[in-house]
Every structure is written in C-alpha cells, then in structure tokens.
Amino acid sequence: MTDGGAVAEPRVRVDAPLDTVDPERELAAVRAGLTATPRRISSKYFYDDRGSELFERITELPEYYPTGAEAALLAEVAGEVVRETGASALVELGSGAATKTRLLLDAMAAAGRLRLYVPVDVSEGTVHRVAAELVEAYPGLAVHGVVGDFTEHLGTIPEADGRLVIFLGGTIGNLDPAEARRFLTALGRQMRPGEPLLLGVDRIKDAARLVAAYDDPAGVTAEFNLNALRVVDRLTGGDFDPGRFRHVARWNAAEHRIEMWLAAREAHRVTLPAIDLVLDLAEGEEILTEISTKYDRALAAELLAASGFRLRRWYTGDDGLFALCLAERAG
Question: Are 142 and 83 in the same domain?
Fold first, then answer.
C-alpha cells in the first residue's frame, strides 16, 4: 500500500502473444527450406537449450569479437545516446539476458530518466528472470515484457512516451537485404515520426578475421551449427546424423556476408516423416544455416533510408570492429 491507502501498481508485467504459433506452418517452413535451392535450415533452430549454451560459449571465445566489441562501444557512447534521445523508456528487440542493455539502463538512471524497460524475446522464462533482476537492480523501474518473435509480434509492443528502440548484436545481419528492409519497415510502422532506433551492425573487415570468428579452432561453432540438425530431427521425427556433416564458414564478398553451411561428408539419405520428405544428399552437398551480413556506414545508411529511417549518428570504436547506428523514424 502507498500513503493514503492507494494500491501500488505492479512493477512487472509480461504479455505472451507467442501462443499463436502454428505447428503446421512451422513444419511447412522447414520443408520449404530443405527443398529450396540451395537447401536451407533456419538459424532459429540453433537455439534449443544445448544451442543456447553453446552460443554463450561462443561469445567467450577469443576469436568471436562481436559481443565484446559492441559492449565496449556501448559503454563508451551510452551517455551520449541517452542525452541525444532524451529516452526514458527502453524497448529491446531480441533482449535475451539483457547483459549489454544494463549499460544503457545505467546511463538513463544516471540522467534521472529511467522509467520503463520493454524486453521482447521468444523465451518466457528469460523475460521473467530478467524482469525480476532489473526491478531489483533499478528502484522505480517498471518492466513490461513481451514474449514473442520480434519478426512477427511488433504490433504487441506497448506504446510509451520517451521510447528508444534498440536492436543490438548485429542481429540485423542474419536477415538478407530484402528481409532486413521488410523488418525495419514494419518496425517503423509501429514508431512515431522522430522516435529513435539504436541498431548494432558488425562492420566489413578482413575476411580471415571474419571467418575465424565463425570457425574457431576449438570447434564450438561447428558443434553449434551441427546442433540445428538435432533440433530439426526432434521437430520432424527425422534421422539427420550430425556425424555425417561438417561445418563450413565462408566469406561471400559479393554479398558482404559470412555464410555458415553444413556439408555432407558422404552421399546418404535422410528421412523426415513429419514433413513427408526424403532427401538424397550428394557427397559435399551443402545446407545453408546462417548468414551474417556486414556493413559499412554507406550500406547501413542505405538500408535505414530504404526502410523509412534517417541515420543521425554513426558510432564506432577505435578498433573499427563494430558500429552502432542511431537513427530516427522519418516522416
């Protein structure tokens, strides 16, 4: 109870629109990917419990620079971003554990502006855990979580004054150019003219440095990639054998992106009963599992402009590894 007998508003609210997922549509999408040219498995199938654990290990590898480079850059510019935007409400797409997010929350708290945090993530358990941690760490902060896929549930993000939308980690690079434009355009439709967006992008750099980040000598990234086959097997009743594939990471200079593939070590057959599919794979035949597009300032500005945003600030550290784009909704 507050003074005067009024009931205090709860500091945590979590909405869960993800229960609208259609299993038949998901199976159809898996089938469409595996019968496409080239064959594809969506990168979302990396992330069962084992895959999430492997990815956390990847972020700690010396070869995998994006996580540390972005965190160092965010620590450097968070105060300026908060001053520039006047943000009092932070909306994070694909929030995960919200580790780097705390740098922005700290800057907002230091400016006396921190009021609301909106994490959007597919994991309900993660959203609840992060919400509990953050309301404990930041007195007066309210958390309005959304359990959902940010590519499908943008319309469920709550409105608030003083919003800053953030999309970190270089995740925009996992979408091909057309998908990235569609996603950012859809996001812009949920934002008011002038509302700010902070977008993290991995920068174009030496091909050897890039390939090393996605093909570490310890084999952790290879195991992460192969794990997608186990997830698809559970979903489809399939008999993919990860031991019959090898991990491939390749720099595609024309598309300025890293590609991850799974290559068949030998000719063999795979049966996936739930999607009524039999694959006869040739030796060396590859399945695309992930792309990670890299950007320079011109490419990032072009993408933002094509999606209804204006680039206001381009932040990059002295190492030149990663960049943060502060943009605003045009119109």
Answer: yes
pLDDT in tens, 27-47: 999 999 999 999 999 998 998
| pLDDT tens digits along 39-75 | 999 998 998 888 888 988 998 999 999 999 999 999 9
Q: Any idea what the Cα angle at residue 168 is, between residues 138 and 48, rounded to 5°?
A: 90
- 124 SS3 class: helix
Q: Residues 287, 324: one domain?
A: no
DSSP state of 193: T
Residue at 246 is within a domain: yes
**Do 204 and 296 form a contact (C-beta atoms < 8 A)?**
yes
pLDDT band at 9 (very low <50, low <70, confident <90, very high): low
State how far the Cα of 101 lies from the Cα of 109, in Å rounded to an integer.
Answer: 12
Which range of residues forms the domain containing residue 110? 66-205+295-329
Return the closest-CA partner of residue 189 out of 213, 221, 165. 165
Shared-domain flag, residues 312 and 221:
no
Domain assignment present for residue 179? The answer is yes
Is 217 in contact with 211 (CB distance < 8 Å)? no
CA atoms lying within 13 Å on the CB side of residue 232: 31
Compute the chain's Rg from CA coordinates: 21
- Confirm whether 19 is domain-assigned: no
DSSP lists the bridge partners of residue 309 as 329
pTM recorded for the entire structure: 0.90
Is 91 within the bounds of a domain? Answer: yes
Same domain for 154 and 50, yes or no, is no
Residue 230 has pLDDT above 50, yes or no: yes
